[in-house]
Design a protein that fits this description.
There is one protein chain. This protein is mainly beta. Helix content is 0%, strand content 57%. The strands form 4 sheets. It has a 5-stranded mixed sheet with strand order 1-8-7-3-5, with no helix packed on it.
């Protein structure tokens, strides 16, 4: 079971595993446990599960370090082939973008909006090195980065800012994606950019 990229120390939304007794007899569950950076957030399974019945276990992911993180959800019971194991995978990232999306409003073609700011924060204790910072997506030229306080590296616990304007070159809904490429895990970090040209 794969979890989305998550900032170190932040807990993901839960994902659910359904446990089904496909046999003809009641099964006894001795324990259910999650390992690594994963935790059980809800468990509808009791001590026994009747034949043909199901129960569900919800799991969350809270990365403690950058990069790929792995664990297991282990069901210990009296079924043949026990225990039943579900592999858990997620990616931790040290870099957090705030906000994760910007709507820069409606602007006449050829004009420019006021800048809005995205804050880049290194939530880890280690320095992160940036490879590149730019705008990609469907209409990248419509979203110039007009200010950048981020140097080539960002110390642990530090923040920097990116100022972005919307300068549409055509009418209609325009979309871009801010991409921050780095060695902080799960690169690139992204923020959605949107505006409407008139």
């Amino acid at each position: 079971m794969s979890f989305p990229k998550t900032v170190i120390g932040v807990t993901s939304k839960p994902k659910s595993v359904t446990w089904t007794n496909t046999g003809t007899a009641t099964l006894n569950i001795f324990s259910i446990a999650a390992s690594g950076d994963f935790a059980i957030s809800n468990n509808t399974c009791g001590a026994t599960v009747s034949a043909g019945a199901s129960c569900a276990v919800s799991v969350t992911f809270t990365p403690t370090a950058k990069g790929s993180r792995q664990g297991n959800l282990t069901f210990n019971d009296n079924a043949p082939g026990r225990p039943q194991i579900v592999a858990l995978v997620g990616t931790g990232t040290a870099i957090k973008l705030t906000p994760s999306s910007l709507n820069l409003g409606t602007v006449t073609v050829g004009n420019s909006s006021s800048p809005q700011t995205i804050t880049v924060t290194n939530v880890s204790n280690a320095t992160v090195t940036f490879t590149s910072i730019g705008v990609a997506g469907l209409n990248p030229a419509d979203f110039p980065i007009t200010s950048n306080t981020c140097g080539p590296t960002l110390a642990g616990g530090a923040s920097c800012t990116l100022g972005i304007r919307f300068k549409p070159i055509a009418t209609g809904i325009r979309n871009g994606t801010l991409q921050v490429k780095d060695n902080g895990g799960g690169s690139p970090q992204t923020a959605a950019l949107k505006g409407t040209g008139t």
